[in-house]
């Protein structure tokens, strides 16, 4: 009977340091991720856009179509 009580007590006492170690590692990881300096990336801005303003070109087409109908 007393052997079972001792085993259970030792098992619980062995789990406490493991639990504390896990909590410490989580805290350390969270602090490291918030204190790291995020270096800004160098972004090159192109002066020529790779896309075309569709609404602008559509308006131009409508204007030219209207002018073509008038002739």
Structure overview:
This is Phosphatidylglycerol--prolipoprotein diacylglyceryl transferase. Keywords: Membrane, Transferase, Transmembrane, Transmembrane helix. The protein has 71 residues and is mostly helical. Helices cover 72% and strands 0% of the residues. It is built from 2 helices and no strands. The protein has helices at 2-35, 54-70. The protein is rod-shaped and about 105 Å long. The termini are far apart. The model has no long low-confidence stretch (mean pLDDT 77).
Can you give keywords for this protein?
71 residues; mainly alpha; 2 helices; 72% helix; rod-shaped
Brief synopsis:
The protein has 71 residues and is mainly α. It is 72% helix and 0% strand. The longest helix is centred in the N-terminal third of the chain and has 34 residues, at 2-35.
Rg, rounded, reads 35 Å
Oligomer: single chain
The total of helices stands at 2
Largest sheet: none
SSE arrangement, N to C:
HH
Mean pLDDT: 77
Let me know the number of strands.
0
Structural class: mainly alpha
Topology overview:
Elements: H1 2-35, H2 54-70
């Amino acid at each position: 009977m007393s052997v079972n009580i001792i085993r259970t007590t030792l098992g619980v006492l062995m789990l406490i340091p493991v639990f504390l170690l896990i909590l410490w590692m989580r805290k350390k990881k969270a602090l490291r991720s918030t204190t790291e300096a995020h270096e800004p990336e160098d972004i090159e801005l192109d002066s020529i856009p790779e896309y075309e303003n569709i609404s602008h070109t559509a308006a131009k087409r409508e204007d030219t179509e209207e002018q073509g109908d008038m002739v």
